[in-house]
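Structure representation.

___
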Amino acid sequence: LAKRDELIEDEARRFQGAFYTPEIWRDEALKEIEKSLGPNWKEECVVWDCAAGTGNLTRDLDWGCLLSSTVEGTDVDVMRRFGWGGTVFQYDFLNDGAESPFFDGISAVPADVDALLRKCAAEGKRLVFFINPPYAAHSTVGTSGDLKVGVAKTSVNTQMRATKMGLASRQLYAQFMFQCRQMAEKYGFADYTVALFSMPKFMCSGSFKKFRNWWYGAHHYGGGFLFQASQFADVKGSWGICFTTWTGGKGSMTRADVDLPMRVFKRSDECARAHLIGLKLVYNSDGREASKWVREPIKGLKKVGAPNMTSGLRVKEAGKKTAAANALYSFNCDSNTVQQSSTVTCLLPV
């Protein structure tokens, strides 16, 4: 039962971006939150896991006020049956006030939970979103080569597009971040924290610039760590997962042009614990894009027609391509993620 999230049918799990959180990384996340909120945060704060699954993040711990919500009714039954998860309820966090594709009817916070949240906000308590939300984006290539069409079509997606969040509106974990801020403000919490597992792309990718400015402008970065994605069940190790903490409230903000430190961990199989192997500084290239810098030397040079190659062996017939006269190679960089660097980052003959 503790690994029910891991036993979901593989194809469905990958499409939804749902991954079981191993206890080793849950424990490390708890230490990270403690650095920002102190040793008694679990007892003093209102903690809401709004992507709970069967409660892997919060199970077997003592909580002062714990809320656990998930879209799957069977997961709600499991948590209630075995007495974990605190106040447990079925709720589609990304479709608040709208019809949910996961169950019949309108998704809404239950009346008793609504009253509790408003009461705790009035008493000045801190709301902590402690989550491992799904990682999936609309119209990105899946494991079988099919597009994940419709996976991000939510009420929050509509709101993010209306506020010009760009491509970030297609990513589910970014939608959860967006909605966490919205819900904290809706219930009137003066102080709140979002502590989540996610891909680190929102901190560095140019496609997340609008979302990043919106997020950084209202949250203080508390810290975080990185580890290889293969630590999650049946996931490739060619990309990384991060856990970060963000504190919201009056005057909270993070400068978008600073390097954010993150510890890098590796699992030690001998003792089944996280082993610190280094420190990484995460930054974005806003205003200093390498794609612009690399073009500086060829400005004003005469250009000639060139084959439009998409790999070392494939020529793309559609579209025109030019290169500087007498050029030997062109540099193809079709992605800024480590996951795809071995396939779409290369030097190609002109």
Summary: The first strand starts at residue 46 and ends at 49. Residues 8-18, 140-149 have pLDDT under 50 and may be disordered.
